[in-house]
Specification:
- The complex is a heterodimer of chains A (about 130) and B (about 425).
- With about 130 residues, chain A is mainly beta.
- Chain A folds into 2 domains: about 45 residues, no CATH class; about 80 residues, no CATH class.
- Helices cover about 5% and strands about 35% of the residues of chain A.
- Chain A is built from 1 helix and 8 strands; from the N terminus they run αββββββββ.
- In chain A, strand 1 and strand 2 form a beta hairpin.
- Chain B has one domain: 3-Layer(aba) Sandwich (Peroxisomal Thiolase, Chain A, domain 1).
- Chain B has 16 helices and 11 strands.
- In chain B, a hairpin with a 4-residue loop joins strand 10 and strand 11.
- In chain B, helix 2 packs across helix 4.
- Chains A and B meet through strand 4, strand 5 and strand 6 of A and helix 6, helix 7, helix 8 and strand 5 of B.
- Strand 4 of chain A pairs antiparallel with strand 5 of chain B, so a sheet runs across the interface.
Amino acid sequence: MSAEDPFTIEQFYKFLGQQKLMAGKCLKCEKIHLPPRPMCDNCFSREFEWISVSGKGKLLTYTVISIAPEQFQALTPYAVGIVELEKGLKIPGMIQGIKQEQLKIGMALNLDFSTCNTPQKWPQWPRYCFKP
Amino acid sequence: MVVLVVGFYCGLASMYNYKRGTLGLNGKPLVSIISAGMSKFGKREGLLAREIFSEAAYEAFSRCPKLEPKKDIKAMFIGHMGEAYEHQGHTGSAIADWAGLTGIPATRTEAACASSGVALCSGIYAVLSGLSDVVIVGGVEKMTHRTTAEVTEYLTMASDYPFEQWHGITFPGLFALMATAHMHAYGTTEQQIALAAVKNHYHGSMNPKAHMQKEVSLETVMASRYVAWPLKLYDCSLITDGASCIILTKPELAGKYTDQPVHIIGSGQASDTIGLYERKSLTSLNATKLAAKTAYEMAQLKPHNMDLAEVHDCFTFAELMAYEDLGFCEAGKSGEFIESGATRIGGKIPVNTSGGLKAKGHPVGATGTAQAYEMYLQLTGQAGKRQVKNAKVGLSHNVGGSGATAAVHIYRSAQ
């Protein structure tokens, strides 16, 4: 990672493909952006540094989706949730590797890179998931 | 001394109003509704959106014989969410064309399911600016010719693409995430949530224009299959075709067109983060709270002053959350509030007398002005079997997406 890596969603997913969970930290007001943004929504600065974020978090809320758009139909019923990581950062994703009836708000989950395959055409965003 | 004190006090009060920037109308009408129209909602096979809209426009024009549409109407704002349904974009001009209004500025507003709530806000700006004395605002959507999977995908486009859509989170999924959090935080139950469906189907059974005009039992709602746990099929609003419109003018011109105008005395629109995951609260919609605050301040009224309301029940849980965000009950108490019967016709504040999105149907672009249409009927005493007795003041609440847009309006009868 270098200062030349743009603070964009595209770059966030490039890092994920390299098994790195990265956020952008504003050099002026210190707000941490996950996903990163090219301009700070708090102080409008465009100066950032990349920081590494731990994939350990806790489940804030979840649902199990039974009716899905065509591309996800083969996976139904699948669980998705919003996970709170360190520093109050939050990110949504699918939850795998657990029986759906065992899902519980507050439970510990880890971001898992093993499902991160990069698609061949846009959007080339590898899909991470969460596991216990 | 008394005079001095009063003078000082009035000075302070006017300064306060000026600083607050709410146009300083303090409960006076912003605009007046002189007519309204709505197509039959439902499965409208063989019709295009523009053709369905002409049905709503025809009703609005017919209701107001003193209006000369081609001469008097100076601008149109049309809520329409998706070009994917009919492979038809550029819908502002297309709708004006089929409404017989070609030539006037016709603007499409898009804010997902709040598209025509936002059209209404835009129409109010246009009239208040002084540039357009009479404006038509409305909305339309044609959805039922598409498969459920296609509609699910098109609706999902109103949520965040790179994190929500990309990871398989659907629209029912987003509201289910909020429902789960609410159940966990406050002990709200699936049964309490399901009561919104039972109530709204009861109300819808009295609305001859509703998509579904039959009552459903709590058992039926509870036994329906899960769409996104804890939300079931009967917790979801309907995929519907329909159109609606209202005609606005300056309050001082309303008498020229009708003896029975309905005044809009508060109008608020607000936004929130596009991603649900970035919000501070997962159990309330901040955009609703902000829009409601603006509307209540403009109207100089409080939640308890409302005689009835049309709120955005895209999912049953969304109606419960709206009770809290609009101040009808305390945060976390919406489950008990609906159980009390307060929001049924005959209760303290009847909500969704039209049947709501749940039973009347939810042609997304048409929903915001369909709520205004119900307010027009109720506040002019034309709501038939579902008429709320002595209704003088009402509120409508239209939400876009998972809450990245909200539009709240407050209406008052002229009587």
